[in-house]
Amino acid sequence: MADLHSADWLVPVVGDPIPNGALLEADGVITAVGRRADLRKLDHDHEQHWDGVIIPGLVNAHTHLQYSHMAAVGSRRYADFPEWVTHFQAAFAEPGHDWYAAALEGARQAIATGTTAIADVVTNPEALPVLRNIGVKGIAYWEFLSWANARSPESARTHAEKMIKEHQDLPIGLSPHAPHTLDEDVLVELTDIGHEFGLRRHVHVAESLSEVEFIGSGSGPHDQALRQWGIDDFALQRQQGSGLRPVDYLDRLVRLGPDCHIAHGIYTDADDRAVLRRRRTVVALCPRSNATISLDEAPVADYLREGNLVAVGTDSLASTPSLDLLADLAELAAIATRQGYRESDLDNRLLEAATLGGSKAMGLDQTANPVGALASGWSADFAVVAVNEPRQVVYEGAGQVTATVIDGRVRHRATSR
Ligand SMILES: [Zn+2]
């Protein structure tokens, strides 16, 4: 069975937008991309014409699907990071969470807004199989949060090896939460395990000023919070900080690389961004989540101008109003413009970040049938956005996805508009 999918426009991301474009799909894989008039001459069984613009399936490069029932926390604004943490922890501690159901619901919302692959950070094992079970691509990153080998019944290594063995059938990775919430020995251990087992890593980095202060000087609100929990022996506390900024600190400790991507990257200077480029480490920007928590805006214009590898994440419904990645693209466009980015390629660059950028963050561009662009040999993963022309996808695409297709199968179709 070969199906032709055509639309007013098709944006391959790896080439110029095609008016009256189409793609030919067989067995879940794209066999040709071009003008509808040309592709119609090729053998096919059926044509589906879509109103709007066909784009590659969106890749959400940072979220926590299991918090999708905590939307009450993410639907308001906070004065600062500690205030958000207090509300998040109170909601997390409430009894009766069904993490599997919540993650499944989040995945459904993601599919309905054009997402076909997800970097999902998981803290409760029930949520680990969700990507596989619902048929979305990506990686479930098992999170290590506030882990101290000296205080835990088992070492991070023992625990990680057990989790890896128990979930060999799932696409998993490792998520050492952040460079300030894990002691140095754990960060090093998890990096070693990642290399040994060939697992990708994903870390929250440079997200809050309390993180920056703690890594630099070993002091501040994060140090005080650790001491309240009886922790006063983190290497950074003993050494009064590293004197470094988060990205540089983490790179010197565990060496970043293309097998690891970071979330947020708000507090980076030109040297940090150069480190990320040198290591080919992708940064997943999460602008609406940052706004919810009243964090500063990431240096979006600098990342684009300097040529960093950039992806886009929504973060979880506990810190953002929706899992619609196109809403984050509109926000990024506004931020970059405010920051003085004037190049005409802004919308192309941002759409690339939300598709191919996220794919690179998880190595999905290196698989047998890669994702993140529309080209022959790539997976037939795409979304249809009901706008008139490609540039509107970034600025007006939020809430406008009318169809989502994964491996050639229609997984979402808007019933009425
Ligand atoms: Zn996060």
From TrEMBL:
Gene3D superfamilies: Metal-dependent hydrolases
Segments forming domain Amidohydrolase-related: 53-410
Source taxon at top rank: Bacteria
Family annotation (Pfam families): Amidohydro_1
InterPro entries xref list: Amidohydro-rel, Metal-dep_hydrolase_composite, Metal_Hydrolase, MTA/SAH_deaminase
Recorded coiled-coil stretches: none
Keywords for this protein: Hydrolase
Protein name from the UniProt record: Amidohydrolase family protein
